[in-house]
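B., you asked whether I could sanity-check this one before it goes into the benchmark set. Here's the sequence:
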Amino acid sequence: MYDMIGDIHGRADELEALLLKLGYQRQGTVYKHPERKAIFVGDFIDGKGQHRKTIDICRSMVEQESALAVMGNHEFNAICYSIPDGTGDAALPHLPLPEQRYRYTGTVPLFVGHYWMDGNPEALSDSVACVDYSVARPGGKLVAYRWSGEQKLDQNN
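And here's what the prediction gave me:
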């Protein structure tokens, strides 16, 4: 079904290694899997790294329907910083924090990135998994969760 792939942060070499480990094969300019589709959860770019190569891999997979992608805060910020606001500053919006926090109560598991976890990757609960294990830090890992529609997450996926 789906491979939820965490924050890549410009680490194209690690992305290619992970795709191969998950059984994707390079076919021309795109990685494809015979039965699964990747879902990238954002933060393709960040600081130093192989940004263009990372974007090329992910974009090719999305365009060839081998993947889906969600924009992360790093992409949002890059877009905002590239748009002048008329005063010479970037058009980065200053949004207030919500007064009320959202609590997920759905029946489908929730996959999140952005939190720079460390240690051994594992589900945070039966229904929540973080797929950001700090690949941009020394010793960090690029991780994925192999989701096949189960409502209760399996630590072996």
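One thing to flag: The mean pLDDT is 86. Otherwise nothing jumped out at me.
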